[in-house]
Amino acid sequence: MSYSKEISKKLNELLEKNYDAEKGYKLAAEKVKREDLKVFFAERAQERYDFGHELKSEIRNFGENPEKGSSLAADAHRSWMNLKTSLSGDKDEAVLEEAIRGEKAAVEEYENVLKESEIPASTANILMKQKNGIVASLNEVKTLEKQA
Which SUPFAM superfamilies did the record assign (predicted)? Predict the structure, then answer.
């Protein structure tokens, strides 16, 4: 596989995860009752939408095409989140727990891609900025969970 195809493949995987997170956050914003959580989740959905556009642009810079859609695993996760929140007496807390789990996984995925030696510095800078945004969101959602 060529260098640009290999980098684009990794970026497409992150792009798919951002599509998934955007959809998950939109769903979370619909599920929670507290207005501050609705705003938080809507902001995270917009952030992930923006991350997706940055990744698409970077993939195109490598002469490749961005993929569309979300992953089967994420669709299953959203279904599980629907079930968990419908069974949970405290839906807000259940949604926050799922957001924490998802953000931890996202940080790990970004770190794995950033470990790759072939990632160009300009791409690594974009990925590091996005990862730092996810870490900030993770910290914020942990704080919100403690307040719940």
Answer: Ferritin-like
